[in-house]
Every structure is written in C-alpha cells, then in structure tokens.
C-alpha cells in the first residue's frame, strides 16, 4: 500500500511497459492505451469501443487484452509486441469523426510504440478516420491501401485451429457431421459459421444481437438458432466456439459442456486461472484462444509490409501447425494446452527479446 492507502500496482506483479490514459472532453473521448511488451517489436493491437461499467473494468480489460496480444504475436512468429486500447462508451451514440481523430492524436503521441487496428466496436472505416491524425494505424479500408476487415482471417485461423483440434481428438481434420456451437455471430463468428457449413458441420448459434442472428438465418438456413448462451452450452455439442466477449469459460460452463473441444475466437476465454485444468480433467481439449485467433493480427501485420491477402492467408494457414505444436508439447510435458502455449510464447519472447530489449522509435 502507498502512504495514501491506495494499492501500488508496481508491487502487484505489474508487468506492462506503459499505460496511457487519453482524455479529450470536447469530443467525449475517454480511452486507455496499454503497451504490454515491445521485446519483439512495436506493439500492435486493436482498439475496442465498449460501454464499460467503470474505468476499473476498462483498465482490467485493456491490461488483459494487451498481455494476450504479446503472447499472440510471439506464438504467431511475428516481430511485434503486444498492445491494446479501449475507448469507454457506447459506439452507437458516442463514436464520431472528431472523437476518433482525437484518439488518433493520442496514438500518434506514442511515436510508433503502439500500432492500432480494429476490434469490438471499431471498423476499417474508423481506422481511416484515426489515420487522418496518426501514422500508426493498420486494418484500414482496401480503398486506402489497407487490409480491410481483419475478422476474415481471424475466423479462418480459428477454423484452422479447430481442424487441428479435431485431428487430435478424432484423427481427422474434417468437422463434417460434427455439431459446433458458436456463441456470438458478429464480425468473426459470422465468417466462422460459413467455414463450418462449407465443411459439412451442423452448426448451432446464439447472439445477444437479434440482427446478427437474422443475418445468419438468411445466409445459412440450415443453421439452428437458440435463444441464449446457456441454451447453447446445454446443447449436445462436439465443439464449443466462444466468439463474443472474454471470460466465457467458467467453472459452471465446464461442468455443463458436453463438447469434446473448445475452440473459439474470443480473447481471454478462461475466466480465472485453474479453468484450464478443469477442462483437462473433464477430457475437454482446449485450443488456446490467442493461438487460434491470431489470423486477424497476421492480417493487419501484413499491411505493414504492403498488404497481400494471399500472403497473409498463407501465414494464417500456419495456425494449424502452431496449434498442433501446442497440443504436442502439452501431451509430452503433461500440461494443459493453455500452459503449453504460454511456454512456447514466453520462450520466443525471452530468446528473441534478449536481442532487442524495449522497442523505441528511431529518429
């Protein structure tokens, strides 16, 4: 505790390099930018626009998300660090060009230590607005030379990870005749449903946003819709795919699941340490979230080289092999896959990061 009685974060295992609180009263901007690590290169991670109940909730989310981005980039073999940003508020009512441009100026002030991209509540067109004030933006529209919607390769990568999990669980990479439950059919879940239907899976979905469900019904009439996530979890499933917000896998969910595999696009799926062991004890194969959902990061990172969708998709296909490598290490070391993925990511950050140190702008 400090002299004032408040908690000193530096005494609580705080590991982030930098956290910035961005404020612009004229536009209503309240944002937090968290740079977890630049040991492998400048931090890259999306901007989430969400109506958090409190600043504390927003801070907790951005710290967790940015840490996950460091691990995601490391495991994907990218020369990038981990960062994330959150804008506090309802994007439906608060988002505006002036606010996004004000946010862009705050990102610009970091001098390239943090590159932003899309996330929940932000889109490629928003990145174009941010880029009017900032040089460190990816995931821009195709019209502006960008990679466009990163959810395309996020979903593709999750599908590759799911195929790898199916190989381990059932000896085949096909999801044909398997029942897959997708919780959240927004930007990523919608594309994932298409891959699953094309592969011959029976798909069950739910979402809190009714128009998203209507769109799935229109695009894929064979997909079954259930009313709630609880109903989905109670369904007879072979694979459960959380594709909405984090903390989706709780102790109660583990107890209720009939699925053999958990593999989805949501970040920070495990609600608390120890859930990964509960999954293992129940015989449920967990494909670590930041391993399988790295396709979007790979897509927007490719933009930094001059975007090629074919090249980015080829790199995202490698998520299949990376996921298998995680499962192989887990099996050989007697570890839950979540711990095995952490060890592989930490090994790369440690070994390559030694050569780089903290990334600072060159000028």
Automatic annotation (TrEMBL):
The transmembrane residues are none
Spell out the PROSITE patterns in the cross-references. Answer: GLFV_DEHYDROGENASE (PS00074)
Q: What is this protein called?
A: Glu/Leu/Phe/Val dehydrogenase dimerization domain-containing protein
Q: Which UniProt keywords apply?
A: NAD, Oxidoreductase
Q: Hey, which family's this protein in?
A: Belongs to the Glu/Leu/Phe/Val dehydrogenases family.
Q: Which organism is it from?
A: Nocardioides endophyticus
Q: Which InterPro entries match?
A: Aminoacid_DH-like_N_sf (IPR046346), Glu/Leu/Phe/Val/Trp_DH (IPR006095), Glu/Leu/Phe/Val/Trp_DH_C (IPR006096), Glu/Leu/Phe/Val/Trp_DH_dimer (IPR006097), Glu/Leu/Phe/Val_DH_AS (IPR033524), Glu/Phe/Leu/Val/Trp_DH_bac/arc (IPR016211), NAD(P)-bd_dom_sf (IPR036291)
CDD domains noted in UniProt: NAD_bind_Leu_Phe_Val_DH
Gene3D superfamilies referenced in this protein's UniProt entry, alphabetically: Leucine Dehydrogenase, chain A, domain 1, NAD(P)-binding Rossmann-like Domain
Give a single Pfam family match.
Answer: ELFV_dehydrog
Which residues belong to any copy of the Glutamate/phenylalanine/leucine/valine/L-tryptophan dehydrogenase C-terminal domain? Answer: 148-357
């Amino acid at each position: 505790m400090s002299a004032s009685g408040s908690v000193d974060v530096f005494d609580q295992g705080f590991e982030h390099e930098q956290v910035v609180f961005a404020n612009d009263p004229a536009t209503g901007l309240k944002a937090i930018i968290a740079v977890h690590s630049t040991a492998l290169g400048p931090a890259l991670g999306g901007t989430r626009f969400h109506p958090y109940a409190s600043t504390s909730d927003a801070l907790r989310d951005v710290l967790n998300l940015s840490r996950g981005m460091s691990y995601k980039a490391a495991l994907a073999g990218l020369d990038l660090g981990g960062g994330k940003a959150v804008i506090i508020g309802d994007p439906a009512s608060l988002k505006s060009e002036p606010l996004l441009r004000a946010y862009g100026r705050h990102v610009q002030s970091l001098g390239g230590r943090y590159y932003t991209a899309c996330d929940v509540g932000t889109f490629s067109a928003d990145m174009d607005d941010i880029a009017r004030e900032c040089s460190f933006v990816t995931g821009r529209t195709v019209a502006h030379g960008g990679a466009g919607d990163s959810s395309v390769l996020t979903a593709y990568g999750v599908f590759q990870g799911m195929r790898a999990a199916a190989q381990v669980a059932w000896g085949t990479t096909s999801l044909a005749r398997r029942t897959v439950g997708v919780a959240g059919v927004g930007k990523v879940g919608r594309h994932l449903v298409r891959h699953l239907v094309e592969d011959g899976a029976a798909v069950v979905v739910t979402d809190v946003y009714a128009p998203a469900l209507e769109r799935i019904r229109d695009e894929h009439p064979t997909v079954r819709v259930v009313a709630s996530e609880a109903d989905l979890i109670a369904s007879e499933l072979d694979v459960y795919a959380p594709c909405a917000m984090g903390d989706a896998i709780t102790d109660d969910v583990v107890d209720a699941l009939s699925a053999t595999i958990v593999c989805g696009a949501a970040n920070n799926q495990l609600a608390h340490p120890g859930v990964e062991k509960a999954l293992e004890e129940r015989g449920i194969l967990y494909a670590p979230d930041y391993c399988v959902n790295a396709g979007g990061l790979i897509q927007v990172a490719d933009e930094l080289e001059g975007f090629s969708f074919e090249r980015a998709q080829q790199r995202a296909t490698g998520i299949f092999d990376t996921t298998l490598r995680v499962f192989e290490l887990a099996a050989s070391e007697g570890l839950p896959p979540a711990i095995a993925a952490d060890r592989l990511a930490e090994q790369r950050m440690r070994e390559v990061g030694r050569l780089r140190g903290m990334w600072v702008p060159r000028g």
